[in-house]
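User: I've been trying to design a sequence by hand for this structure and keep getting stuck. Would you show me what you'd pick, starting by listing the structure so we're on the same page?

Assistant: Good idea, let's start from the same input. This is the structure you sent:
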């Protein structure tokens, strides 16, 4: 048994050689190690075969009729889809010029004939492990870049969306401090209500940013405990009915009795809040909102349907992503930061559930989530 990569069973090796005896030898001991083998007996055949299935590593003979190994390597390295596949040259030569040329064209190593089984396996295993580590590093770098972009968006949103409400609070409070004694009581109450409203909007934004930060850092933890989702839904509806009444929106309920089960009431409360507030936010005055809570075998489903403008297919693709601004706008200039549904999706998924939307432009939207009734 010779050294090999950590998971040879998952690795496909392409042998490119015009000599059947060489192919037989390599195939014999590589298959014993658990590698999957494919074969091409010319450079042209290898280039055609790779268009159908990409190998994890290529053993490439240098001396072949037609396109030799060096030219085959050059063409593989010139294509984006094949440029990162490790290529180990097979050669009967041990001349420095040939070795250097192979490396200059993008080869990672070489083996000489006659083959030494342990050496061949060791070199293949090493380069497959290096390839695996490179891919892992690229994925981590990509994730770091994504997180850095998200951080920059956080900062941009915070500076942009917090500037106006802070300016409003400063302006109204300065007027009250400088001229409060001479202002009519009605005016003072109006200023205080404005300060209260914009400070609430700031708090919602800050909580959303904090939630996104927790989620993206992988630190979202659920505090599961037995509870009544029906009671939680009814509590939230009572709160949001006040906002609905202000817009002359009627709420219609079909709430089933649901047995208690384990869930995180704070996180699910945030999800319910988001769906209810959006339904009110995007519904014109005088419309209706329909709310359902139902049990489906061992799962529970919560749905909210509004009579707003609906959501186009293009916008539906953006709905559950961070910082997405949609064509559909709130009907009474309510604030929208493009974070709520992204947060709701992560929290539902943390409960091993899923969240969906069903909508067409001009016909309202139905948002729903289902979660299992864990014990």
């Amino acid at each position: 048994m010779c050294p090999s990569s950590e998971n040879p069973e998952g690795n496909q090796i392409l042998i490119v050689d015009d000599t059947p005896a060489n192919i037989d030898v390599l195939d014999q001991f590589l298959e014993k190690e658990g590698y999957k083998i494919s074969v091409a007996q010319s450079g042209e055949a290898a280039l055609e075969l790779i268009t159908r299935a990409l190998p994890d590593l290529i053993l490439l003979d240098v001396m072949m009729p037609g396109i030799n190994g060096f030219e085959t390597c050059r063409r593989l390295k010139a294509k984006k889809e094949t440029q990162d596949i490790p290529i180990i040259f097979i050669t009967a030569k041990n001349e420095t010029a040939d070795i250097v040329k192979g490396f200059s064209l993008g080869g990672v190593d070489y083996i000489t004939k006659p083959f030494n089984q342990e050496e061949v396996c060791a070199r293949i295993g090493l380069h497959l492990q290096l390839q695996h580590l490179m891919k892992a590093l690229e994925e981590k770098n990509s994730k770091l870049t994504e997180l850095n972009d998200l951080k920059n968006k956080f900062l941009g949103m915070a500076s942009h969306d917090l500037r106006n409400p802070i300016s409003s609070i400063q302006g109204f409070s300065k007027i009250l401090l400088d001229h409060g004694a001479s202002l009519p009581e009605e005016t003072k109450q109006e200023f205080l209500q404005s300060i209260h409203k914009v400070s609430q909007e700031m708090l919602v934004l800050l909580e959303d940013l904090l939630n996104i930060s927790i989620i993206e850092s992988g630190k979202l933890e659920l505090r599961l405990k037995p509870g009544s989702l029906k009671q939680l839904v009814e509590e939230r509806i009572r709160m949001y009915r006040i906002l609905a009444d202000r817009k002359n929106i009627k709420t219609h309920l079909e709430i089933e009795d649901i047995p208690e089960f384990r869930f995180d009431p704070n996180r699910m409360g945030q999800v319910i809040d988001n769906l209810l507030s959006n339904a009110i936010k995007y519904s014109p005055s005088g419309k209706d909102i329909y709310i359902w809570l139902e049990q489906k075998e061992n799962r529970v489903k919560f749905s909210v349907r509004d009579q707003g403008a609906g959501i186009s297919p293009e916008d539906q693709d953006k709905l559950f992503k961070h910082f997405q601004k949609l064509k559909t706008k709130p009907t009474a200039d309510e604030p929208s930061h493009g974070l709520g549904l992204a947060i709701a999706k992560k929290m539902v998924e943390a409960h091993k559930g899923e969240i969906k939307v069903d909508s067409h432009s001009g016909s309202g939207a139905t948002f729903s989530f289902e979660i299992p009734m864990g014990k």
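That's my pick for every position. To get oriented when you compare it with your attempt: The mean pLDDT is 85. The chain has three domains: 8-138, 147-216, 225-372.
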